[in-house]
């Protein structure tokens, strides 16, 4: 039996499940677009986000970038190493503290630090352009609240790490 899922009406899921379904739809679209970006422009969505942020803050310490992105430093290290192998990002020791790594874009990396069609941020920009500012602010506040609530599920030890400035992921 060949079931045409497009012609089926969605069942009434209720507020929470419907919202979660939409979040998963966004997550799936992000993953799919990220893979397409890798095939077409050579970097994934997360790699491009790192390039764009480093482009805004040349010399940003790796630890600061990890905290900004809410990822574990080891996750960021993997992304940065791939970008470095591609010749897009440079790492150098902080002259004031050799334990810290400072990140900057190479000349080739700066070519990626431009607005481009077919990227996740171009799609997000189009959606933001269609929305009124109050709707954008409400969405930003709700997403921040969801992230904070999910992060609180990590338990008291995670809260202690956050209070002491350690990143979480």
Structural commentary:
The chain has 169 residues and is mostly helical. It has a domain at 16-130: Arc Repressor Mutant, subunit A, CATH 1.10.10.10. 62% of the residues lie in helices and 10% in strands. It contains eight helices and three strands. The chain has helices at residues 15-41, 45-56, 62-69, 73-85, 107-112, 120-130, 133-152, 156-163; strands at residues 60-61, 89-94, 97-105. Strands 1-3-2 form a three-stranded antiparallel sheet. β2 (89-94) and β3 form a beta hairpin. α2 packs across α4 and α3 packs across α4. The longest helix has 27 residues, at 15-41. It is globular.
What form results from the Cα inertia axes? globular
**What is the CATH architecture assignment of the domain at 16-130?**
Orthogonal Bundle
Kindly state the mean pLDDT as a whole number? 88
Tally of DSSP helical segments: 8
Radius of gyration over alpha carbons? Answer: 19 Å
N- to C-terminal distance:
43 Å
Q: How many DSSP-defined strands?
A: 3
Q: Biggest sheet, open or closed, and with what strands and sense?
A: 3 strands, antiparallel
Poorly predicted sequence stretches spanning 5 or more consecutive residues: none
Strand content: 5-15%
CATH class of the domain at 16-130: Mainly Alpha
H and E string: HHEHHEEHHHH
Give the name of the CATH superfamily of the domain at 16-130.
Winged helix-like DNA-binding domain superfamily/Winged helix DNA-binding domain
Helix-strand makeup class = mainly alpha
The main sheet orders its strands as 1-3-2
Helical fraction: 55-70%
